[in-house]
Amino acid sequence: MPASPLQRLLTAIVGWLVALMLFFPIAWTVLTSFKSERDATTPSLSFAPTLASYHEVFARADYVAFALNSIVISLGGTVLALLFAIPAAYAMAFHPTERTRGTLLWMLSTKMLPPVGVLVPIYLLFRTSGLLDTRSGLVIIYALMNLPIIVWMLFTFYKEVPNEILEAGRMDGARTLGEVWFLLLPLTLPGVASTGLLSLILCWNEAFWSLNLTSAGAAPLTAFIASFSSPEGLFFAKLSAASTMAVAPILVFGWFSQRQLVQGLTFGAVK
Amino acid sequence: MSAALTTQAEAPPRALRKVGSLLLLPSVIVLLAWMIIPLVMTLWFSVQYYNLVDPTTTGFAGADNYRYLVTDPDFWVSLRNTLVLVASVLVVTVVLGTLLAVVFNEPFPGRNVARVLAISPFFVMPTVSALVWKNLMMHPIYGVFSALARSAGMQPIDWFAEYPLASVIAIVSWEWLPFALLILLTAVQSLDHEQREAARMDGAGVLAQFFFITMPHLSRAISVVVMIETIFLLTVFAEIFVTTSGGPGNATTNLAFLIYARALLQYDVGGASAGGVVAIILANIVAFFLVRSIARRLEV
Question: Is the ipTM of this complex over 0.90?
Answer without folding.
Answer: no
